[in-house]
Amino acid sequence: MTNVASPVAVVTTMDGRRPYGTTVSAFASLSLAPPMVLVSLDDRSQQLAIIRRTGRFGLNILSTRQAALAAAFARSGPDKFEGVAWSPSEGLPRLPDSAAWIAAEVDDYISAGDHTILLAQAVTAESAEGSPGPLTYHQRSFGTHTPLAP
Known about the structure:
Structural class: mainly beta
Number of helices: 2
Shape: globular
Number of strands: 12
Order of helices and strands: EEEEEHEHEEEEEE
Distance between the termini: 28 Å
Number of domains: 1
Radius of gyration: 15 Å
Strand content: over 45%
Helix content: 10-25%
CATH topology: Pnp Oxidase, Chain A
CATH architecture: Roll
């Protein structure tokens, strides 16, 4: 699967007043009517346990300028937001300068191996005007997408 390029996002949620987040590359657009996304999270993650309680999450689709942020949220530990600027949006942690933002409410949880797939309706979806484009992950490296010439 390292030969498949995928977009990179940080899934965020709130546990009371404390923000949580984790980097994912397993997410996709699922449906236009209604607007839905899918996200896959490790069954052992604290993030998944919180989302199961709240039924909501934010999806910060990272821009090419946010590789360091992707790496920071990919590590283990509870203090991933330490020193990271964020603001509440729809009651969820939103990271500045992301290529796009989605606030979602979970419709269903599907067990799949050691992960759970979240099927969720997008409550809010916004793309950043003038964004340099989405961050991608390919062959264990962060990169960018470059369109082919017509």
